[in-house]
Specification:
The structure is a single chain. Strand 4, helix 3 and strand 5 form a beta-alpha-beta unit. The longest helix is centred in the first third of the chain and has 14 residues. A five-stranded mixed β-sheet has the order 5-4-2-7-6. The protein is an alpha/beta fold and 176 residues long. It folds into two domains: 103 residues, no CATH class; 62 residues, no CATH class. It contains seven helices and seven strands, in the order βαβαββαβββαααα.
Amino acid sequence: MREPADLTRIERFMRALGENAREPVRVYLTGGATAVLQGWRESTIDVDLKIVPDRDDLLRAIPALKERLYLNVELASPVDFIPVRPDWEDRSPFIRREGRVDFHHFDLCAQALSKIERGHDQDHRDVAELVQRGLVTRSELLTYFEAIEPFLFRYPALDPTSFRRRVERVAAPSVP
């Protein structure tokens, strides 16, 4: 079992990945990596990411970086679990550039909806942090869901009715 990925490990990974990029590329961090970089979690089990466009040089570098830095890396993002809006890349906040790699947080609304759909305890806490920190709004979550709802059929494991109910619960105004 590798060590949890804390801020120092994630930043080392970003630098190392940047050193391995031969051409410009975007890497979208998601899940726990976003939580750690945004400061509401100390660590995460793994660094989830999406590389755009897919790049063999980076994909080949990741196994060695995982071993050298002793951390888990997964090729996973919200688009693997739920539909996302066509403009998700434009909606993905820039973190920084390392070498030829531009690092971004994957579209924060898509991350929140993916977490709502999955529904683990840590997911609920992460969504609450995204809302509390003003990174997403409750109304924005419902609007985003309504934009992707017609495409839920592409994800047969999802139950659109229960997914909508969970989003509506989160999107409902909080009672003081």
